[in-house]
């Protein structure tokens, strides 16, 4: 294992990713701000450390697989992929515009995007299928699947949780962006999930609970997940919706709303001033 | 005449595929014996995945297996595949144009005593509205076996509609079968009966009854509902001027609708529909139900006479 990147370096990348997310959302005039900002460290800690991929050969057979089940957070994924040169950064400003490869929710075909998603609850089943296929092929690839907390309301997720445990898919690493909000409001008010850790444990998953914005904890979790054998792992990542910009944090009205030009300027000042 | 369920033809085809191709994998949502997926399971347990009663998860898991380079068949009853897992089929399979074969057995009211919750009469409609989806309803076990094998090499998702009950074998091994190409079974000049699935047999019986009454009926087996063979339908309209469609399925959005969609654009002629008329199924023996739902050869004969009268007006 190559050494870890410096936390300082990753923090800087995360800051740049946030800037790209906000710019592209404002440029598009719509999109999901809060849930994109909450997953930045989870993506940065994965893509810039653990994840095996080749931006020049996005479909190469030895790659790991990342599945964004909470498809509405795609601005964060697009920013990361562009930062890694899967495609040109200039393309980010085409988000949500006619003819773009950067659809409002991810569409397979854009280099680095493994699945089309957006209708919630479907990613973990696909991750399991990928994992079963890899097992047949004796392929060591790891399959990561990022879900939202509100997404866990979907019954299909729990069907897939059963499947992952039944087939002991230790090549699957689930990640829950536990930012405590969904579109209607607080998760606990909308449809209570707690006790969440115990639920996953009762379904025979190994649970790693972390601060999803602490890059060391994030990288530690990905390392630890790889060592657990005989069952799948889920990282319960406690996060903050709208993380990184003071006036967006925990403001649920930005769930599906892009910043205005004025808000973007204020946000950039904050981020660039860091 | 020999009788056999179309699901048996599928089960046999699947085992043959499994022997030839290592990429064939099968997922089953608990109805493993009923769908005949069990025949594959017995021979290739390492490529068989028990999914429990989780149709939506089964579809997603199949999508992942397809993405990893496998050729999955998902097996359950038609109602639970096309109905319950429709959005999963839409987003995780059709939108990504993945090579997954969705097998829906127990199509139609010929399911019999289990009643309306288990009788799928809407799958053709539900599946054919999805871009990239191919929909096939074989008429007998021989055709089901051919369809199974061809679907495994087809580019894009395929929905395979199969039945529970034994149905007469009306085709032969030597008959050609091509996805998207309808088969002309009987030629005729007065009227054309276009049918799929079990109704193909009823259409052939109707052809004989009509022949005794000096009415010459063309019979077309439209086994592929999508992509539809527009040329054969248009030619039949031009040459016979009257069409009867026959399906063990709702007439809303099914075979009758799709034939009408072609005809209104290409060559409008009168059409009569034999099919389920905006209602759910019910319990009973298949034979009784075919009478109740007016899906018999006699019903087709009556419809043929009606449509010929309309043509001659």
Highlighted features:
heterodimer, A: 274 residues, alpha/beta, Rossmann fold, five-stranded parallel β-sheet, two-stranded antiparallel ribbon, globular, B: 313 residues, 2 domains, seven-stranded mixed β-sheet, 14 strands
Describe the protein's architecture and organization.
With 274 residues, chain A is α/β, with parallel strands linked by helices. Chain A has a single domain (7-272), classed as Thiamin diphosphate (ThDP)-binding fold, Pyr/PP domains (Rossmann fold, 3-Layer(aba) Sandwich). Chain A has ten helices and seven strands. Chain A has helices at 7-28, 34-37, 40-50, 74-83, 123-136, 155-166, 187-190, 196-202, 215-227, 261-272, and strands at 65-68, 143-148, 172-178, 181-182, 185-186, 206-211, 233-238. In chain A, the strands form two sheets. In chain A, strands 1-2-3-7-6 form a five-stranded parallel β-sheet, sandwiched between helices. In chain A, strands 4-5 form a two-stranded antiparallel ribbon. The longest helix of chain A is centred in the N-terminal third of the chain and has 22 residues, at 7-28. Chain A starts with 6 loop residues before the first helix and ends with a helix. Chain B has 313 residues and is of the alpha/beta class. Chain B has two domains: 3-168, 3-Layer(aba) Sandwich (Rossmann fold); 183-312, Rossmann fold (3-Layer(aba) Sandwich). Chain B is 41% helix and 20% strand. Chain B has helices spanning 6-20, 37-43, 55-67, 78-84, 86-94, 123-128, 141-151, 199-212, 230-240, 255-266, 286-292, 297-312; strands at 3-4, 24-28, 48-50, 71-77, 101-105, 134-136, 158-161, 167-168, 183-186, 191-195, 217-221, 224-226, 243-250, 271-276. Chain B has a seven-stranded mixed β-sheet with strand order 3-2-4-5-7-6-12, with helices on both faces. Chain B has a five-stranded mixed β-sheet with strand order 9-11-10-13-14, with helices on both faces. In chain B, strands 1-8 form a two-stranded antiparallel ribbon. In chain B, helix 3 (55-67) runs parallel beside helix 5 (86-94), helix 8 (199-212) packs across helix 12 (297-312) and helix 9 packs across helix 10 (255-266). Chain B starts with a strand and ends with a helix. Classes of the chains: A alpha/beta (274), B alpha/beta (313). The A-B interface holds A 107-108, 114-119, 121-134, 136-137, 155-156, 159-160, 162-163, 166-167 and B 25, 46-47, 49, 51-52, 54, 56-70, 72, 87-88, 90-92, 95-96.
């Amino acid at each position: 294992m190559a050494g870890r990147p410096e936390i300082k370096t990753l923090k800087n990348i995360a800051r740049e990713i946030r800037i790209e997310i906000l710019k592209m959302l404002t440029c598009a005039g719509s999109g999901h701000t809060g849930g994109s900002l909450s997953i930045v460290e989870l993506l940065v800690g994965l893509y810039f450390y653990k994840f095996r991929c080749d931006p020049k050969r996005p479909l190469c057979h030895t790659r790991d697989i990342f599945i964004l089940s909470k498809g509405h957070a795609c601005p964060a994924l697009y920013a990361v992929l562009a930062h890694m040169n899967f495609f040109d950064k200039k393309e980010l400003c085409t988000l949500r515009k006619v003819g773009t490869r950067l659809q409002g929710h991810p569409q397979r075909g854009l280099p680095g995007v493994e699945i089309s998603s957006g209708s919630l609850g479907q990613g973990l089943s696909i991750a399991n299928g990928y994992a079963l296929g890899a097992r047949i092929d004796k392929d060591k690839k790891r399959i990561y699947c990022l879900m939202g907390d509100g997404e866990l309301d979907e019954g299909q997720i729990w069907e897939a949780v059963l499947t992952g445990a039944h087939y002991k898919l230790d090549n699957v690493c689930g990640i829950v962006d536990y930012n405590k909000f969904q579109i209607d409001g607080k998760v606990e008010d909308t449809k209570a999930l707690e006790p969440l850790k115990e639920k996953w444990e009762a379904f025979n998953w190994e649970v790693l609970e972390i601060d999803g914005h602490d890059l060391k904890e994030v990288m530690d979790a990905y390392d630890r997940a790889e060592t657990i054998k005989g069952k799948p792992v889920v990282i319960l990542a406690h996060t903050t919706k709208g993380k990184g910009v003071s006036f967006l944090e925990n403001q649920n009205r930005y769930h599906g709303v892009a910043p205005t030009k004025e808000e973007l300027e204020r946000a950039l000042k904050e981020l660039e001033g860091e | 005449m020999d009788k056999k369920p179309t699901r048996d033809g599928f089960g046999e085809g699947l085992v043959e595929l499994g022997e030839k191709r290592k990429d064939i994998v099968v997922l089953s949502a608990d109805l493993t014996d009923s769908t005949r997926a069990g025949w594959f399971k017995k021979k290739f347990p390492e490529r068989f995945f028990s999914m429990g009663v989780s149709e939506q998860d089964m579809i997603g898991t199949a999508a992942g297996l397809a993405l990893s380079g496998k050729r999955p068949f998902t097996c359950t009853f038609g109602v639970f595949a096309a109905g319950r897992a429709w959005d999963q089929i839409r987003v995780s399979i059709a939108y990504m144009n993945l090579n997954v074969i969705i097998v829906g057995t127990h199509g139609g009211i010929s399911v019999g005593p289990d009643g309306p919750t288990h009788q799928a009469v809407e799958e053709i409609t539900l599946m054919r509205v999805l871009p990239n989806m191919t929909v096939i309803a074989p008429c007998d076990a021989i055709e089901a076996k051919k369809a199974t094998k061809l679907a495994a090499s087809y580019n894009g998702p395929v929905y395979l509609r199969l039945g529970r009950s034994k149905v007469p074998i009306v085709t032969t091994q030597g008959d050609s079968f091509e996805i998207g190409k309808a088969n002309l079974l009987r030629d005729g000049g007065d009227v054309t009966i276009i049918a799929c699935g079990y109704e193909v047999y009823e259409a052939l019986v109707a052809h004989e009854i009509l022949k005794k009454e000096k009415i010459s009926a063309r019979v077309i087996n439209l086994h592929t509902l999508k992509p539809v063979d527009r040329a054969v339908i248009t030619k039949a309209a031009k040459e016979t001027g009257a069409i009867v469609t026959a399906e063990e399925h709702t007439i809303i959005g099914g075979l009758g609708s799709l034939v009408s969609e072609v005809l209104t654009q290409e060559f409008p002629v009168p059409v009569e529909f034999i099919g389920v008329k905006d209602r759910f199924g019910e319990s009973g023996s298949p034979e009784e139900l075919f009478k109740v739902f007016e899906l018999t050869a006699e019903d087709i004969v009556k419809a043929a006479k009606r449509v010929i009268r309309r043509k001659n007006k």
